[in-house]
Amino acid sequence: MSRYFAVLLAIVTINLAAPSAAQENPESVFRDYDHMRSIMDDGMMNQNIVMLMRAFGASDEMTADELQSLEAQVKALFPKPLDTVEVMKSEKLGDHWTREMYVYYSGINYIYALVLFHTRPDAVVAVNFKFNTDPIVLLGEF
Length: 142
Known about the structure:
Number of helices: 6
Number of strands: 5
Radius of gyration: 14 Å
Helix content: 25-40%
Structural class: alpha+beta
Distance between the termini: 27 Å
């Protein structure tokens, strides 16, 4: 069954906002790191993919039907909420730039997320966001 996860979500790895789009798109802007994490953690743990993708800037990247289809696929893979989240890797890239990878899981069901963000004095801007059931895909970003 985990092979099915990797194959399906490898196809739907989402590469959201490009740097210029994220700066213009208020959907990828959060009050602070804790606010960004609360939105991401809620979306990932509860498979609320439509909300998650809109919050991280997918409203102009995917149609409403594509978002609904993606959420249905994720809910089929993870029919129950996930109960644990851990930071797998965190990397400072320079002044105010960070890339982090998280694992969300219950039992032996795992899904991974990666976000590149810019911490500004007034906000945190998520510049790039991806998720996948194959950690190697996202670890390749480091």
